[in-house]
Design brief:
single chain; about 475 residues; alpha/beta; five-stranded parallel beta sheet; two-stranded parallel ribbon
């Protein structure tokens, strides 16, 4: 069996994840008899159903996983308010940190001792100055991390760092160096670059950046060990943005990018390996940040502007302490619940009929009641779509304090839909879009007229940049507070 066959076997059988979990358990429990302890752990693996059921913390006792929050804790909804401009210091949930599981280390390889580096222990940020806010953007290869990171950085005036670009530039500038030649081969096969090397490059880059209000780091960490190392050597991030995307969608985007950009790590074999690595590491990494209350997840299986719209909406929600409700999300969540109501909704949709407004209003009301004690208000997206829905909402819940109409020309909407359609598996032509717009105008004009007489209706010019639209939205909301 050659090296590649061995690596493929280990990856297919989920052996690295099993070893990581066993080592985490040993370091946490420190048993008197490690052999007996490992035997009991392996027995548990059998009971769970195999290696693929083992997570990084399977053998970590519950009391070691999460300690109570410092300073009384704080809900997740405060994070963007603290991370983005106009923020204040916040307490975060402490995690009982386990020592990182080191990946293959070129620095410690005896055959490459001439290239070994001593990773210095130094302060990355000046302790006499306020530390910049750190946002980590993670997701699968091809999920749009670079695109969204740049948009976030531009929107809020933060500095942007691409970890992948850092490594590629280093490889290009030191191509004759034996160590970096080997790292280039590792990356080209779809493996992760050595953890110690990557952290060192990030630290050096951070130290070159002048005083900034915030920094967006794209593509790091890739696993829990890297997350722990980042916290140990740099800092705890203020926010982690996770871009969730279907595996097939990631593969399509990577193959398309390979044609357009010719990146060496986008070859077919490397792509398959990178996707396998992501699948193995994503769940424990997301869980780790969830336990710390640091992560926000966005559906990245869509057009990039739609994804950034959701990120911007999250910012708006966090700025004012609102709860964001989307009828589409509520319907999808209900369908996945397997309740009696979900079966009724599924039957209606399978017959091609619209879900009755009464059911949608029930879902809205239940979601609002669930969040009532922990919110300053509700931002309801895309509702009502007809006057009847607005009247029913007013009777059963109450009239809204503000109705915002995103005003946009038919030409602009058509161009945006056509552009979005290019990256969507369900492409729309101009005739289909024209019918959609006709239906929209037919329903929206009476809704606008209805609310003009009942409450504050504020029209926002949606022709501008996302930043311009966001500022208009803030002005509209500020007018009622």
């Amino acid at each position: 069996m050659n090296t590649n066959d061995a690596k493929e076997y280990l990856a297919r059988r989920e052996i690295p994840q099993l070893f990581e979990s066993l080592l985490n358990g040993l370091m946490c429990s420190k048993p008197e008899d490690p052999i007996e302890y490992l035997e009991s752990c392996l027995q548990k693996v059998k009971e769970l159903g195999g290696c693929d059921k083992v997570k990084w913390d399977t053998f970590v006792s519950q009391e070691k996983k999460t300690l109570p929050p410092l300073n009384g804790g704080q809900s997740r909804r405060s994070f963007l308010r603290n991370v983005m401009p106009e923020n204040s210091n916040f307490p975060y949930r402490r995690y009982d940190r386990l020592p990182p599981i080191h990946q293959f280390s070129i620095e410690s390889d005896t055959d490459l001792s001439e290239t070994a580096e001593l990773i210095e222990e130094y302060e990355v940020f000046d302790p006499t100055r306020p530390r910049p806010k750190i946002i980590l953007v993670i997701g699968g290869p091809g999920s749009g991390k670079g695109t969204q990171s740049l948009k976030i950085a531009e929107r809020y005036g933060f500095q942007y760092i691409s970890v992948g670009e850092l490594l590629r530039k280093k490889i290009h500038s030191t191509s004759s160096n034996r160590k970096w030649s080997l790292i280039a081969k590792i990356i080209t096969t779809g493996e992760l670059a050595p953890q110690e090397t990557t952290i060192t490059e990030i630290k050096q880059k951070l130290m070159q950046i002048p005083d900034e209000e915030g920094i967006v780091i794209d593509g790091f960490p890739r696993d829990v060990a890297q997350a722990l190392s980042f916290e140990d050597q740099i800092c705890t991030p203020d926010l982690v943005v996770f871009l969730a995307c279907a595996n097939q969608r990631l593969k399509e985007r990577l193959l398309k990018r390979a044609e357009q950009q010719g990146r060496p790590d986008d070859n077919l074999k490397a792509t398959q390996r990178r996707l396998m690595n992501f699948k193995q590491n994503a769940a424990p990494l997301v869980k780790y940040f969830q336990e710390k209350g640091l992560i926000m997840t966005f559906d990245a299986d869509r057009d990039e502007d739609e994804v950034f719209y959701d990120i911007s909406m999250a910012k708006l929600v966090e700025k004012y302490g609102f709860t964001h409700l989307s009828t589409g999300d509520l319907l999808r969540n209900e369908l996945s619940s397997e309740s009696e109501r979900s079966k009724l909704i599924r039957d209606i949709m399978e017959h091609g009929d619209l879900v009755p407004s009464g059911i949608i209003l029930e879902l809205l009301k239940e979601a609002m009641l669930a969040s009532l004690s922990d919110t300053k208000g509700f931002l309801i997206d895309g509702y009502p779509q007809e006057v009847k829905q607005g009247e029913e909402f007013g009777r059963r819940i109450g009239d809204p304090h503000l109705v915002i109409c995103m005003d946009c020309s038919a030409d602009t909407m058509t161009n945006r839909l056509l552009q979005r359609s290019q990256s969507s598996p369900c492409a729309e032509d101009t005739s289909t879009i024209a019918k959609r717009l006709e239906a929209y105008y037919r329903a929206s004009i009476p809704v606008i007229a209805y609310y003009e007489t009942k409450t504050q209706l504020h029209k926002v010019n949606a022709e501008g940049t996302p930043e311009e639209v966001f500022l208009q939205l803030c002005t509209a909301i500020d007018s009622i507070f």
